[in-house]
Write a structure and sequence with these properties.
The complex is a heterodimer of chains A (118) and B (119).
Chain A: E1 2-7, H1 16-29, E2 33-39, H2 60-71, E3 75-78, H3 79-84, E4 96-99, H4 101-110, E5 113-117
Helix pairs in contact in A: 1-2
Chain B: E1 4-9, H1 18-31, E2 35-40, E3 76-80, H2 81-86, E4 99-101, H3 106-111, E5 115-118
Parallel strand pairs in B: 1-2, 1-5, 2-3, 3-4
The chains are: A alpha/beta (118), B alpha/beta (119).
Chain lengths: 118, 119
């Protein structure tokens, strides 16, 4: 099955961000496809290149980057939400890219299931 | 491909930039020529309350942003009746016409849509 995922919450605001990551990992492990993950509202903070959590904590930033490379997932950060919050292209972490709401819409139209976290 | 979208708004007015950003998605969806409906639930019923005066709060009066929706052919605005009544509001106090949905029928109502967009 083809999934599209939207993440609206920042990495540390609630458990939704970790739940989203674990959900994505679980569906990939079951050989489903993730068409796109779209980071909107405060979800854009997942793409901060300069984030440096302590070594003994799980890093969602690194987690998503690795998942994107491993499974060739398209991680799109909303450009207008990012600009509003001061995230510019040069500060976007590896594996993420900036994109528009059209890419969110394309994902919701083409996916079999669309899930929103946060 | 055309899908039927239901945007479910639950957060109140002036909750950060939530309403501005969710309206951007709604308008983009309409621009993609999808079928768009909006449901105001819980504190989101305050979005359409008439006579909002945001002037002294440092916020933008976001109720006027909803006036754009009909120009993009988004005419199906639903409000959960109980959410409205529990907050002391009535349809006469809103800025634009809405269709009421009762809490009891909400699950069946949502089941008609291809995409329920949780906002």
């Amino acid at each position: 099955m083809k999934f599209a995922i939207q993440i609206n919450t920042s990495p540390y605001h609630s458990s939704a961000s970790l739940t989203a990551f674990r959900f994505a990992s679980a569906i990939l492990a079951q050989h489903h496809e993730i068409f796109r993950v779209f980071f909107y509202h405060d979800g854009i903070y997942h793409a901060l290149k300069s984030a440096a959590p302590p070594d003994d904590e799980f890093s969602l930033f690194k987690g998503w980057s690795e998942l994107a490379h491993q499974h060739k997932i398209d991680l799109v950060v909303c450009i207008s939400a990012a600009q509003r919050r001061g995230l510019i292209d040069e500060n976007v972490a590896d594996g993420f890219r900036l994109g528009g709401l059209g890419q969110l819409l394309e994902a919701t139209i083409l996916a079999d299931r669309f899930l929103v976290f946060g | 491909m055309t899908k039927r979208f239901l945007f479910v708004l639950r957060k109140p007015s002036y909750h950060g930039v939530y309403v501005q950003e969710i309206l951007d998605v709604i308008l983009t969806t309409a621009a993609f020529e999808q079928e768009v409906s909006v449901l105001l639930l819980d504190d989101a019923v305050f979005h359409l309350k008439a006579n909002q005066n945001a002037q002294n709060s440092g916020c933008k009066n976001t109720s006027t942003l909803f006036e754009i929706l009909p120009t993009m052919d988004v005419n199906d605005i639903f409000v959960e009746m109980e959410s409205l009544l529990e907050r002391g509001l009535s349809v006469e106090m809103l800025t634009q016409p809405v269709q009421l949905q009762s809490r009891a029928t909400l699950a069946d109502f949502m089941a008609q849509f291809d995409v329920v967009f949780a906002g």
